[in-house]
Amino acid sequence: MSQLLSPDRRPPLRPHGLRVLMDGHDLETRDRLFRLMEQSSLFCPRRRGGDRVFVAPDYNQTKEQQREVTMRRIEYLSRNGVFDGWLTERGEDTEMRKMAMNEVLGLYDHSLAIKLGVHFFLWGGAIQFFGTKRHHDKWLKDTENYIVKGCFAMTELGHGSNVRGIETMATYDSNTGEFVINTPCESAQKYWIGGAANHATHNNLLSA
């Protein structure tokens, strides 16, 4: 049976060691991103207890206001190089750094993390993994710089994001060089997340 140690025999709590255990990797990258957020009024920084700064979204805003400020936050992060290499660089270190920053953004606000996740991982990832060099040269850098703003039309009214249940059909017409989209019924209507209909300039359509 284990015994509790008396207070004077317990090992001291080491905050840095706990941080390494919890975050695991890319601590300097995470800290740089936190500092960027603390320095901008877009992230609603609040100073408490001397030099401690907390950031949290303003949840008293309307849906339209929150969507707009999310876009302004993305533009601020892009200008400060946060997304550099997210799509144009390869390798384990790049992927781990990207995941670390996405975790930081998710801690701040899921709206921000999801919008970036759809743009970089779904739209950008589709180009990255399914495209050829021609597609990479044309789309990846502009996607990384958030000039091209992508979305991913998967979710349908009748069954959410159940890919096997998708009813929309996309058929390529070789005579016109176009895809013919057929949404056969009301349940097959695409319901986009992340305000994509408001801001996206390009779309990946996932169909049966």
Structure description:
InterPro entries: Acyl-CoA_Oxase/DH_mid-dom_sf, Acyl-CoA_oxidase, AcylCoA_DH/oxidase_NM_dom_sf. This is Acyl-coenzyme A oxidase 3, peroxisomal-like. One of its GO terms (biological process) is lipid homeostasis. The protein starts with 14 loop residues before the first helix and ends with a strand. By secondary structure, it is an alpha+beta fold. The longest helix has 21 residues, at 110-130. Helix 4 packs antiparallel against helix 5 and helix 5 (110-130) runs antiparallel to helix 6. It has a domain at 24-148: Orthogonal Bundle (Butyryl-Coa Dehydrogenase, subunit A, domain 1), CATH 1.10.540. The protein has 7 helices and 6 strands. It has helices at 15-23, 27-38, 63-79, 92-108, 110-130, 133-144, 196-199, and strands at residues 45-48, 52-55, 150-153, 169-173, 178-182, 202-205.
